[in-house]
Amino acid sequence: MFTRHYAHWPPGRPKSLPAATAGVYANLAHAAARFPDRVAIDYYGSTLSYLELRRQADALAGFLQGRCGVARGDRVILLTQNSPHFVIGYYAILRADAVAVPLNPMYRSEELRTYAEDCGANAIVATQELWDRIEPLARAGVLAQAVIGAYSDHLHAPTGLPMPDFVHAPRRTPAHPAVADWRDAVAAGLAPAEHRAGLEDLAVMPYTSGTTGRPKGCMHTHATVQATAAAYLRWRGAPEHSVVLAALPFFHVTGMQTGMNGPIHAAATLVILSRWDRDCAAMQIERAKVTNWTAITTMLVDFVSNPELAKHDLSSLQVLGGGGAAMPEAVAKRLEETIGLPYVEGYGLTETMAPSHMNPPQRPKPQCGGVPIFDTDARVLDLDTGRECGPGEVGEIVVRGPQVFKGYWNQPEETARAFLEHDGHRFLRTGDLGYYDEEGYFFITDRLKRMINAAGFKVWPAEVEAMLYAHPDVQEACVIGTPDAYRGESVKALIVLKQQARGRTKPEEIVDWARGRMAAFKVPRTVEFVEELPKTATGKILWRSLQDEENRKRGAA
């Protein structure tokens, strides 16, 4: 067990947390029993109590079982922006003993089809603005049951807060035989069957991808989800009744755990933003007296750049942190000057249900992933020999702990490649290169796996390349990351056109085509046409050399 960091462990915190004794839904049930009238959700000034949140989740669970035929272990897609719908839908799926499959609401129809077919989902819980993307799947019979809601159903109090148009849009339930209206589903009042899912049952299956471009469902049980749900507020510290600004997307494991599951475990109040808005965030921090906020770098850069920020009282904030990409030192300094709090960074993966590492809140280090958290062991292994590295030596970071996933859905070979045996234990290979210092703090230096981090969104180049090859004018494609001062990285595509398209097809046409077929964060910001792509003797494209050349060019610029 790696213990070098124990000298800097958060004061008063145990080294180990008790293992969960019940599944994720129990967190909501316990919160509702203890604090029935406490505000669970604050949605643009309209509130939902813990008792009402549980009532609606239970009613939707009963509808999923009784009318949609959802059974124990079935996968149910959850497709919505941050909203009461996501929280209710998530806990309803778990209460129905099913598996929540949260997908990015930016996905287009073709992407949704890929995920739906891979996980074998037959039902979807979603919101009305996304119906046009879901409809082709319903028409084709890929998704036979859909519960569709309107965000405005949860707006009942006057508010001066700015909100996206889709939030206050009136309800327009699609007229389709597969569709059940959300309000009707809840109002049906169907009681769910006895809750039978145990700690080792699958609870949630967020997707990641990889070098092949094929999506990979990360199988997380109730136990692995509970491991980090319990850890977040316990590690960073929180007042007895925390108020959490939930602005990171819930479909991503960091937003899911820091903005939803962790707070519900602690019976905190979730102040939900459906879309990032720096003015609304500042207004909500002041109005709702937000105490805890987890955010990514791009969000905070935008927040502190707001010329109106000084007008708002941010003094309620007590904990500020995040991860996804290292926080630039200059931005961290400006944050501390503006808000009066240090930015406490963490590190984790979809495979670890968010954090495996966090900085000690009393002694954080900048541009640092932190130290292994409760019950978590981490090592650094030499890439060539597999020997364990010492302080300052760069190698692959490997981890083990109660939050580590059980494997990739229906991909045993990929699962086997994700783990290794070391020191008598099974460790997850993170695919990230890094080192730890003399005090046991871990730093990430590079990635072994091929991935682009665009404003906190993971983009897998092989997945984007596979989509680009569907363009009739594309002969070959290689996708790389290009440095971006605001987003961290942006997507760039190097393309060899087919002979007949050369001189006729323009880069912007490729970009426009991509926008209609893939989520916006995957769309190449830059397309460059080249005569040929460098290859190995066996014909594999040398993406690494292209990436290195791009980094050199941008560095020189």
Describe the structure.
Among the domains are: 50-197, Rossmann fold; 452-556, ANL, C-terminal domain (GMP Synthetase, Chain A, domain 3), CATH 3.30.300.30. The strands form seven sheets. It has a nine-stranded mixed beta sheet with strand order 2-1-13-12-14-15-16-17-18, with helices on both faces. Strands 4-3-5-6-7 form a five-stranded parallel beta sheet. Strands 19, 20, 21, 22 and 23 form a five-stranded antiparallel beta sheet that branches. With 557 residues, it is α/β, with parallel strands linked by helices. Strand 6, helix 6 (165-168) and strand 7 form a beta-alpha-beta unit. It contains 16 helices and 28 strands.
Tell me the radius of gyration.
23 Å
- N-to-C terminal Cα separation, in Å? 45 Å
- Total helical segments: 16
The level 1 CATH classification of the domain at 50-197 is Alpha Beta
Biggest sheet statistics? 9 strands, mixed
Structural class of the helices, strands and pairings?
A: alpha/beta
> What strand order characterises the main sheet?
2-1-13-12-14-15-16-17-18
CATH topology of the domain at 50-197: Rossmann fold
Strand content: 15-25%
Percent range of helical residues? 25-40%
Short structural description:
The protein has 557 residues and is an alpha/beta fold. 30% of the residues lie in helices and 24% in strands.
Task: Summarize the topology.
Blueprint: H1 25-34, E1 39-43, E2 46-49, H2 50-66, E3 75-79, H3 84-95, E4 99-102, H4 109-119, E5 123-127, H5 131-139, E6 145-149, H6 165-168, E7 179-181, H7 182-187, E8 202-204, E9 207-208, E10 216-217, E11 220-221, H8 222-236, E12 243-246, H9 253-265, E13 269-272, H10 278-288, E14 292-294, H11 297-304, E15 319-322, H12 329-339, E16 344-349, E17 354-358, E18 371-372, E19 377-381, E20 395-400, H13 412-418, E21 419-422, E22 425-436, E23 442-447, E24 452-454, E25 457-459, H14 461-468, E26 474-484, E27 488-497, H15 507-515, E28 526-529, H16 543-556
Parallel strand pairs: 1-13, 3-4, 3-5, 5-6, 6-7, 12-13, 12-14, 14-15, 15-16, 27-28
Antiparallel strand pairs: 1-2, 8-11, 9-10, 16-17, 17-18, 19-20, 20-22, 21-22, 22-23, 24-25, 26-27
Helix pairs in contact: 1-2, 2-3, 4-5, 8-9, 11-12
